[in-house]
Each structure stands twice: as structure tokens, then as C-alpha cells.
Amino acid sequence: MPNLPDPLVARALAGDRAALARLISRVEARAPGADAIMAGLPARRRSGPGAPRVVGITGPPGAGKSTFTDRIVTAAREERRRVGVVAVDPSSPFTGGAILGDRLRLDQHAMDPGVYIRSLSARGHSGGLSRAAGQVVDVLDAAGYDDVIVETVGVGQGELGIMEVADTVLVVLTPESGDGVQAMKAGLLEIADVFVVNKADRPGAEALVRELELAVHLDMRPGWKAPVFAASARTGVGVDDVLGALRAHADWLQADGREAWEARRAEGRVRTWLDLVSEDARNRAVEQHGEAMAELRRGDRTPESMPR
Fold first, then answer.
1. What is the largest CA-CA distance in the chain?
2. What's the Cα-to-Cα distance from 98 to each of 21, 119, 123, 158, rounded to whole Å?
3. 246 with 218, same domain?
């Protein structure tokens, strides 16, 4: 392990779960020194894919994302792989914190020392992710986790940010979530590495699978073609096929797909930087223009007339 001058960081990366929780809290809040910690963090995935395997799970609310997360964690633990889960939850309008918490997710894994689960607040960020999500992935990477799962907030289907954080993106849909044409309009074809139509025993599942398969077939971009599966995360039917496809995509990234992985990671680094810039600009505006904000609240100014 490299020399880590901050004792909290050293303890976190050495396996102290309480220290890991505090470190992630510092990163999420951008506490003093957090940016410097992140800049010096020994994250393995900066040099290539595979360590850890980072899977993003996205899709509309109620599609079964959390159940698939549970299935992936279970399979990884059967292989004795250590798993980190980053669950991005809706923000409380009062505190800005996550409304759903760690205790409400993955109950059967809560006491497993090989599984670390952390909820993050979306804090108003678009794309189903929080600003800190990618940074927390890097923390879990540096802490030696074999797999990291990032589950988005599920605010809708246009959650394009997940592809800039995850290496492999699983898009979970249901027959009730709308037809394949609407899914394509939402940009899911661009981000999905694996599609699964969950709750496949319900009417319309077969038709949705066919529409997705046709859309993938007509996509002329070179490279990986997203397979489409029908499954039931609740009963386990078809889940093994989905897990196999996730592993196959991870293997592809380390071979023919390395260039695609590099491009994705490059966009992820830019996204994190722009999020930090935006956050800093908002904080400076609040600090520097308090009087103008009071005038804005009173209605004496319009947003367009405010200093920028």
C-alpha cells in the first residue's frame, strides 16, 4: 500500500469499515482535504478495466433494479468476491440527504463483512447519479473491492450519466415501462451493454424483447451489441443468463473493447471535473451575492438580472 499521510484514509483502505464510511462522507460533503485525498487515491481502474468490475444498473422506477442488485451481489459472494454497492437515492427536499438508506436495501447482505453498502443522495443532479458517485467508486476500488455496483436513483429512463461511471451498464425494463420505441427515444440504446426485460411473465414482455432486439440489430455502431434477455429477478428465471452477459462484457472490455472503455473513462473524468466546477461556482455565488439573493427572494430582482 502506498504511503498515505492521512490516517483515516490508511485505515479505510486497510479494511476498517467505520473509517471507510467516514472517508466516503468526507468525499460526498467535499470536506476540507477531500479533493487532495481523491487526487492521490491509489485507484486501480485508472490503469485499466477489470479491477474492480464496475456494473451500473439503471431503468425506470419499479423495474426491479434493487432486486437485480441483490442477485448480482449474491452471485459475486458465491465466488468469494468482495462487493461494494453504491445506491443513489432521491434527495430529501429539507436536508439534501438520501431518503432511502442502507438499512432498507439488501437486508440479507447487511451483516456480510464481504459486502459494503452505501446510499448516496442524488442532491438534485440529473442523470440518476450524484456528483460523488464516481468518486465513491474510486474509494471502493482503492479499498480493494472486487466488484462495485452502482444503482441509479430511478428517476426515469434518461439516466445517461451512468455510462460515465460504470464499465458495464445493465438496463432493467418491464412490460409496463413503455414500448421499445420510447426506450430508444430516452437514449437507452446508447448506454445499455445488457438489456433485461424483468417481470417477464407479464403481458407484453415478449413484444418488448423483440422491439429491443430489433433496435440493437439496426444499430450500426461498431463494437459490442447489447444482448436482450427476459427474466424474473424475483423468481430467478433467466437471471443466470443476465449474469453471464455481464461477465462477458467485462471480458470484452479487457480485450477488443479496451478502446471503448478508455473513451468512457475519459468522459467520466470530464464529468467529475465539470460537476466540481459547477459546485464551486454555486457555492461562490451564494457566498458573494447574499444581498442580491435577498432581493431575488423579495421579488425585487429577476434571476436574469442577477450577477453571474
1. 63
2. 15, 7, 8, 20
3. yes
Residue 89, pLDDT above cutoff 90 = no
Residue 11 shares a structural domain with residue 76:
no
Q: How far apart are CA 121 and CA 98, in angstroms?
A: 4
> What is the number of structural domains in the chain?
3
256 and 112 share a domain?
yes
> Who wins on pLDDT, 251 or 271?
251
| Residue range(s) defining the domain that contains residue 123 | 43-260
Q: Are residues 196 and 129 in the same domain?
A: yes
Cross-strand pairs, 228: 195
**CA dist., res. 78 & res. 91, Å (int):** 33
Residue 80 CB partners (closer than 8 Å, separation 6+) = 114
Between helix 133-142 and helix 258-288 the angle, nearest 10°, is: 120
Q: Give the angle 98-82-137 at the CA atoms, nearest 5°.
A: 45
Query: What local confidence, expressed as pLDDT, does residue 94 receive?
Result: 37
* CB-count burial class (<10 Å; 0-12, 13-18, 19+) for 273: exposed
pLDDT at res. 290? 94
Q: Are residues 11 and 103 in the same domain?
A: no
Kindly state the DSSP code that residue 76 receives in the 8-state scheme.
Answer: H
Half-sphere exposure (Cβ direction) of 80: Cα atoms closer than 13 Å: 0
pTM metric for this prediction: 0.87
Give CA–CA dist 140/83, Å, rounded: 9
Predicted pLDDT at 302: 96
243 part of a folded domain: yes
CA distance 146 to 141: 8
Q: In what order do the strands lie in the sheet with 115-121?
A: 115-121, 83-89, 147-151, 53-58, 168-173, 194-197, 228-230
- Which of 31-35, 97-101, 249-253 is the most confident on average? 249-253
Q: Are residue 173 and residue 113 in the same domain, yes or no?
A: yes
